[in-house]
Amino acid sequence: VDPEHKIGYIRLSHFSRHTAAELRTALDTLKNEGMKALVLDLRFNPGGLLSQATEIADMFIEEGRIVSTKGRNVREQVWEAKRPGTYSGFPMAVLVNRASGSASEIVSACLQDHDRAIVVGERTWGKGSVQNVIELEEGASALKLTTASYHRPSGKNIHRFPNAKETDEWGVMPNDGYEIKMSREEMLNYQNYRESRDVLSDKGPPQSDYVDPQLAKALDYLKGQLGIPAKAEKPKAAAEKADKAAAAPVPADGIRQRADSGEVRLPIYS
Fold this sequence. Notes:
There is one protein chain. β5, α3 and β6 form a beta-alpha-beta unit. α2 (50-58) runs parallel beside α3. The protein is of the alpha/beta class. The strands form three sheets. A four-stranded parallel beta sheet has the order 1-2-5-6, with helices on both faces. The protein has a four-stranded antiparallel beta sheet with strand order 4-3-8-7. The chain has six helices and ten strands.
């Protein structure tokens, strides 16, 4: 995603049977190309197999708890990390949003609790329940029974229960200063951009002026970890921009028309 500073980017859209193996292949490719930092994008990832989530989390931490499950009538299960096969020595940022759930929350919570990566974006969905599928009528139907819930390494419950409040602890919250909420319009713009990127072509990815605010925030953090100074806007350019803004007429309804691009900006009310 940033060839100049060797910052890699991997997006996981789900956790299926081969996800961990495919991720390891992608990581090996990036490491061979000199990767110095990594963005792991779990936005709009609804989850999938627990085995893949624990294996992927284990790729980035050398020891400690990955996740545990607890229920009223089932014995607690704990998954621990192992040192062999760990990818370390580079800073990480994990992108999540309100549609990241289940296995995505297990991975992001694990890396956050172990200070292996910062979490950037929005609070996750809060799907931390464990279900068992019980066949009925000789396989003609089935019953999905919730038996336990996932707990992150810190011991906190990931699941958002029906009566949960916004002030309660559930899901995975971005690190302090790295919560970037996206409006419905911004979300649609991102999805349209994402769909165009996901179409494979011999010509390569399409050219676009779209700027992903959550990814940009993650890149700023990683560049800081690599000791890359932020690029300051040139004083002359900043002054010219301020002069244009001041000269632009502001109608009574508060709508400002930018003289340089014709863009219309609506007023923002707090």
